[in-house]
Amino acid sequence: xxxxxxxxxxxxxxxxxxxxxxxxxxxxDIVELDEKIAEVESDKVGIDINANVHGKITKILKNEGxxxxxxxxxxxxxxxxxxxxxxxxxxxxxxxxxxLSHLETVTNKKLSPSVIKMVTEHxxxxxxxxxxxxxxxITKGDIINVINNMKLTxxxxxxxxxxxxxxxxxxxxxxxxxxxxxxxxxxxxKLRRTIAQRLKNSQNNAAILSTFNEVDxxxxxxxxxxxxxxxxxxxxxxxxxMSFFVKxxxxxxxxxxxxxxxxxxxxxxYHNYYDIGVAVSTNSGLxxxxxxxxEHLSFSEIEMEISQLGKKAKExxxxxxELSGGTFSITNGGVFGSLLSTPIINPPQSAIMGMHKIQDRxxxxxSTIQIRPMMxxxxxxxxxxxxxxxxxxxxxxxxxxxxxxxxxxxxx
Length: 412
Known about the structure:
Strand 13 (280-281) and strand 14 form a beta hairpin. The chain is α+β, with helices and mostly antiparallel strands. It has helices at residues 79-91, 93-99, 101-107, 113-122, 140-169, 173-179, 190-205, 218-235, 242-255, 299-315, 388-403, 406-410, and strands at residues 3-7, 17-23, 30-31, 36-41, 46-50, 55-60, 67-69, 73-78, 208-216, 262-264, 267-269, 276-278, 280-281, 286-287, 290-291, 328-332, 351-355, 359-365, 368-382. Helices cover 39% and strands 23% of the residues. The strands form 5 sheets. Strands 9, 12, 15, 16, 17, 18 and 19 form a 7-stranded mixed sheet that branches. The chain has a 4-stranded antiparallel sheet with strand order 1-8-6-3. A 4-stranded antiparallel sheet has the order 5-4-2-7, with no helix packed on it. The radius of gyration is 30 Å and the shape is elongated. Helix 2 (93-99) crosses helix 4 (113-122), helix 9 packs across helix 10 (299-315) and helix 9 packs across helix 11 (388-403). The chain starts with a strand and ends with a helix.
């Protein structure tokens, strides 16, 4: 019997372990080559574990929620068992047509090899099957109908179970008191534990301070309305607000390089490139994929990068490289309705800018009160290397670029 150990593969540079988030197969299941058998998440990405051989899972060595080191065995697949099974079912169907005569004895009907295979796989009781073929012979179509009915029954039972569970949850407060209150304990995912640790480390290690400003979004909103359809028609992507803020942030960072720097022991590392992290909320938690060399990208290229990275983030398909090495981050709590917040720095970066909800507010313009679409923006920064003057100046420059977007084109 040939056994193949399935190990946790390399998850990328600086990632030494992962957590089994889900088993897609159980012991005894037959798996095909490259078929997904488990899902693993690290502190940065989630990956699928696929079978590297065709065979039968004989041992599962790690449970869901277990931490696994790279190279550690998670399960064992026996390829001989599958080959033997395939031989019995596929290669020797003619032989089974003779040797499995007990199936035919039950019904007193001749069965084809394909029918025998389906009956064996789905454990069908032939006494309950009415043949539609000549002399009431059971055909492949008869077996398919039985299988479909079995699936339909399973679906109905599953729906009934869900309905029953939902009904049991919809109880009156008095009934809840009588039955007792419950607490459900669920272990944090690897990603959630890593997020918690990194954010706490950021607070402990950096001297985080926040400064605020507000931006009049009228001009940029009108610009989007005017060119939105033409932009999408030409570039195949919608023109959003984020590309303007990325452009504005990069322009401000180029004038204030300390905001784009980071602390390394007793040294300050200045970057001559601008890799901008854009925070994306997923079902597993917040991730920050990186837009590389944003200073060289056009509006459409930035929007395309944001769209592609956001899609991959929500599907859990981001690579380690797409999550590592940013020099500055932008987060937009406004998509959830946040009016104001103080985001935490994403280490080892030294600053993060927060966008918020656009809200119509009365403001004074040229001695008159007008209703304008306003947004609060915030910069959280590491006060160890960034002074208040530099932080305030940075936000003021971003504000000026957004309120007068032509500055981004003229570089003024």
